[in-house]
Automatic annotation (TrEMBL):
Transposase putative helix-turn-helix domain segment(s): 1-46
Record protein name field: Transposase putative helix-turn-helix domain-containing protein
Lineage of origin: unclassified sequences, metagenomes, ecological metagenomes
Pfam families from the UniProt entry: HTH_OrfB_IS605
InterPro entries according to UniProt: Transposase_put_HTH
Length: 223
C-alpha cells in the first residue's frame, strides 16, 4: 500500500536560495513547454506530446546550461505534470464542464514544486539528501524526525505552503493481516457531510467544504 507523509523542513538561508533557484529553472521549463504546445497548435494545428518534449530536454540544456543544475528526473516530471494538466483539462471540457480551463503559465513569485521520482534522493541516519548540480555545491540535506520510518520510498516532493518548506514522501507501507474482531463501523456518505459510527459508540462527522461544486453541474444541466 502506498502512502504519503508530509514533513516540514527548515532550510538555512543558503539552502533556501538554492531551492528557489532550482524551482525557478523548473518554472521556466514548464512555461517553455507550455509555449511550445500553444504555438504548435495555433500555427500548425499539431499536438506536442510529453515524449517529444522529454526527448528535446538535452537540446534545451545545451541552449540553457543552467537547467543542468536541476536533477534530470525532476525536469522530466515537470513535463509530465504539464501533460497531466492538459489531460485533466480535456477530460473536463469533453464532459461539458464550463469551468474547465487549460494550463496557465506559472508566475515567478510562486515556488514550483520539485518531484524526485524513484531516484535523486537518499535517506541516511535520520536525514534526507536531495541531488542537484548547482555550482555552489551546497548540500540540500534536511532532518527527518525520528518518529518517521520508511521502508521503500518511491517519490519525494519539495514544495512550499504558507511560506514554509515541506517534503512529501511517498512510500510503501506493509498492510497488516486482516483479523476479525467482531466490530463493525457504519458510514453515511451524504452530500453536505459524511457521518460514521462504530460499535464502541465512537462518532465522527466530516463536512464537505465545497458542496456548491456538487450542485453546480446539476444547476447547469437544468438551465
Amino acid at each position: 500500500m502506498n502512502l504519503s507523509q508530509k514533513i516540514r523542513i527548515f532550510p538555512d538561508s543558503e539552502q533556501e536560495e538554492i531551492l528557489w533557484i532550482l524551482s525557478e529553472k523548473c518554472r521556466l521549463i514548464y512555461n517553455f513547454a507550455l509555449t511550445e504546445r500553444i504555438d504548435s497548435w495555433k500555427n500548425k494545428g499539431k499536438y506536442v506530446s510529453y515524449f517529444k518534449q522529454q526527448n528535446n530536454l538535452p537540446k534545451l540544456k545545451v541552449k540553457y546550461p543552467e537547467h543542468k543544475w536541476v536533477y534530470s528526473k525532476v525536469l522530466q516530471y515537470i513535463l509530465r505534470t504539464l501533460g497531466a494538466d492538459y489531460r485533466s483539462f480535456f477530460s473536463l471540457f469533453k464532459k461539458g464542464d464550463k469551468n474547465a480551463r487549460p494550463p496557465k503559465f506559472k508566475g515567478k513569485k510562486y515556488f514550483t514544486s520539485m518531484v524526485y521520482n524513484q531516484s535523486g534522493f537518499k535517506i541516511d541516519k535520520g536525514f534526507i539528501s536531495l541531488s542537484h548540480k548547482h555550482p555552489s555545491k551546497i548540500k540540500l540535506k534536511f532532518k527527518i524526525p525520528n518518529k518517521f520510518k520508511f521502508d521503500k520510498i518511491h517519490q519525494v516532493s519539495v514544495f512550499m505552503k504558507d511560506e514554509k518548506f515541506f517534503i512529501s514522501i511517498t512510500y510503501d507501507k506493509k498492510v497488516k493481516d486482516y483479523v476479525y474482531n467482531k466490530k463493525y463501523q457504519a458510514f453515511d456518505l451524504g452530500i453536505m457531510k459524511h457521518t460514521g459510527v462504530n460499535l464502541d459508540g465512537k462518532f465522527i462527522e466530516l463536512k464537505n467544504s465545497r458542496v456548491d461544486k456538487y450542485w453546480q453541474k446539476r444547476v447547469q444541466e437544468i438551465q
